[in-house]
Amino acid sequence: MLLPTLTADLPGCGGTFKGTPEDFVVEEIPAYEPSGEQDCEHLYLWIEKRGRSTQDVAKALAQHCGMNEKDVSWAGLKDRQAITRQYLCAPARFVEPKLATFVMEGVTVLRTARHRNKLKGGHLHGNKFTLMVRGVKDHDVAQQTLARLVKLGIPNFFGEQRFGIGGDNAEKGKRILQAGGRHRDRFERKLFLSAYQSDLFNRVLARRLEAGTFATALRGDVLKKNVTGGEFICADPIVDQPRVDSLEVSPTGPLFGPEMRRPEGVVDALEEAVLADEGVTRELFVAGGNETMGARRLLRIAMQLESAVPRGDALELKFSLPAGSYATVLLRELLKN
Fold first, then answer.
1. SS (HEC) of 58-70
2. Which of 161, 81, 83 is closest to 129 using CA atoms?
3. Which residues are bridge partners to 318 per DSSP?
């Protein structure tokens, strides 16, 4: 599915990214720091990795320390082809006696500290990025694009990595639901079902962008507070639009499931139309069980842009994004390729 852009009227600035891992640096913004109390059972490891996936490091650490892989947890997955810093968590009794002899090419343990609670997925505020776009043809158009994205927000599309190397994870998720939720592999089941929810969200967001209502409060919208996550139905767009304009609140899209808050009026009709085009109904997601309970996801995210500095024919970007969003969506707006 070819997704629209918010800045379609502006040309791409040109250039490429991820020429080397050093061109794509990501640092996790933790939801909290470990307490450091020595009587706590969980050990947090702040690691830097290059050319390694989060799962690669977790597996190697588990094997070295004699643990089960499921004993190692993290807040979020980080890119392989990048330099990334993030927390891993594992039982201190296994890791501390053997950490000094843990060696893995491309991986450095920068510090450790104990904490009373196990680190779980989603326990992070967001990520800080330092990206280098090389071969930029037009720095002025890059600045215009960034200015609009800062003002209106970045479309909160799920990135293509969500859908697998072949791009068919969503279709596999759809087939699992149509088969009553059954699948032989639990990890794959979760991955594929999530991909299908994500694909439907992207389709709804694409329609809102094309209709020009991406940053518009519509009567019946489920609006969400950007900082606290509180949700409410838009009863009066005239009242709520100034809050949308200031990025205090944003419209949301569906991650379909029985616990998802349903919009009203024209917004509900739009989401129903996306389901109808797919030949599915809301009831289908009951078959996904705990994997497809449903939620509302922001249609846009606020980008905290620290700097955008030309470096010859390159552009160095420093910015932060909230958890669950994709820097590749921002780069697609810039490059248009």
1. HHHHHHHHCCCHH
2. 83
3. 130, 307
Question: Among residues 125, 142, 168, which one ends one of the domains?
Answer: 125
Same domain, 9 and 138: yes
Closest by CA to 42, choosing from 64, 59, 67, is 67
- Copy the structure tokens of residue 197: 């929810």
- The number of folded domains in the chain is 3
From the candidates 9, 23, 71, 79, give the one annotated as an active-site residue: 79
In a domain, 6, yes or no: yes
Note whether 159 and 215 are same-domain residues: yes
Neighbours of 175 (CB within 10 A): 13
Rounded (10°) angle between helices 327-335 and 139-152? 130
- What is the value of pTM for the model shown? 0.90
Identify the CA nearest to 224 among candidates 236, 212, 233: 233
The C-alpha angle with vertex 228 and arms to 226 and 234, in degrees rounded to 5, equals 60
- Based on the fold, state whether residues 294 and 171 are members of the same structural domain: yes
Query: Which helix (H) or strand (E) covers residue 243, if one does?
Result: helix 237-245
Examine the domain organization and report whether 217 and 206 are in the same domain: yes
| Cα torsion through 285, 175, 300, 162, rounded to 10 | 130
Find out whether 243 and 249 touch, Cβ atoms under 8 Å. Answer: yes
287 and 308 in a single domain? The answer is: no
Instruction: Average the pLDDT over 129-156 and give the result.
Output: 96
- Furthest C-alpha separation in the chain: 62
Active-site residue flag, 79: yes
The closest of 248, 224, 226 to 234, measured between CA atoms, is: 224
Range of the domain at 2: 1-17+134-150+304-337
Is the same domain home to 117 and 160?
Answer: no
User: What does R_g of the chain's alpha carbons equal in angstroms?
Assistant: 21
User: In this structure, which amino acid lies at residue 132?
Assistant: M
pLDDT of residue 164: 83
Give the pLDDT band of residue 187 (cuts 50, 70, 90). confident
